[in-house]
């Protein structure tokens, strides 16, 4: 039975007064305006998003924490009007608990709310147990995370800082201050969507090393990652190898799309990342991604299956480059780009963040996609966003 957000909010309100000394609450309210035009479209869409978030923590005992976080969004504009079943594009999908509600769904506007964090966290000496809807982040790189088995990053999804979660069971055993054994299981109605993985984290030579093994998509996987520095510059990397997909996995791909799984060798993804901040705040960040079965042409046609296979990109190679600088203590400018060296398509993303007053930020960001038809970035056009965010 679907849990209605109204009763959850009522529960929070009562609990805040009853447990004021052991309860925390914070969040934000954001307004996001966007102007977008696809490369193949003749019309530019103007959209508005009002987005609120409420984060709660309750500590009923010294070693016990309960967390619930609620996300509320209201959309209005051309994208809603011209995108068939727009609500399906924004709804989160979970197997067992529908902790969401559609408040309205009309021609040009949609209102949607969800609980995207709801978990119990229990500690006993070196043991930590987390049960429920939670974020499990195992990656070390900042753009592409092949070893983040549960929810890899998407650097282009800038407006969801918290990132998606999973309904999962996680057990962590700390063998030292910076070393641990980490086991996580995500159940699912379809065995194909179940995930069972383990991570062993150690520290050596001032580097953190992570070794990963498990099952995802009914295929074995093994990975390795590290994070450290060279001459005060950050140096990170990830390697993931997984079993080749079965031939019948092609059955879920429409005939109009191409196949990535017509081979009999294992999938392998490698990401390398380095960054450095100069004394004058100038920042530089470079990252590379390699997929052994990635494509060098018509990459756009393969993206749907790449997502299904857990790949972060359908391309063979991807290159990321970022520069940032604090123009003043309150204004930070940044520009990054991602290029596909094979098909020459790319996206350039300039942005400016301004701290207007305490707890109020102004953010301007643009996505400038370019490339030929059916290249990785050639189909998306341009989009400009303006955001105001108030935190409390």
Polypeptide structure, described:
By secondary structure, this protein is mainly beta. It has three domains: 1-118, no CATH class; 125-226, no CATH class; 244-392, no CATH class. The chain is 8% helix and 53% strand. It is built from four helices and 19 strands. The protein has an 18-stranded antiparallel β-barrel. Strand 7 and strand 8 (180-186) form a beta hairpin. The two termini are 32 Å apart.
Features:
single chain; 392 residues; mainly beta; 3 domains; 4 helices; 8% helix
Provide the low-confidence segments as ranges: 1-20, 251-258
Q: What's the shape?
A: globular
Supply the number of structural domains.
Answer: 3
Number of strands: 19
Proportion of β residues?
over 45%
Structural class: mainly beta
Oligomer: single chain
Order of helices and strands: HEEEHHEEEEEEEEEEEHEEEEE
Radius of gyration: 22 Å
Residue-averaged pLDDT, rounded? 90
Fraction of helical residues: under 10%
Largest sheet: 18 strands, antiparallel, barrel
* N-to-C span: 32 Å
Give the helix tally. Answer: 4
Briefly, what is this?
The chain has 392 residues and is mainly beta.
Helix-strand blueprint:
Blueprint: H1 5-18, E1 23-37, E2 45-61, E3 64-77, H2 78-82, H3 86-90, E4 100-105, E5 109-124, E6 127-134, E7 166-174, E8 180-186, E9 195-204, E10 207-216, E11 219-230, E12 233-242, E13 267-277, E14 283-291, H4 303-308, E15 317-328, E16 331-339, E17 346-357, E18 360-370, E19 382-391
Antiparallel strand pairs: 1-2, 1-19, 2-3, 3-5, 4-5, 5-6, 6-7, 7-8, 8-9, 9-10, 10-11, 11-12, 12-13, 13-14, 14-15, 15-16, 16-17, 17-18, 18-19
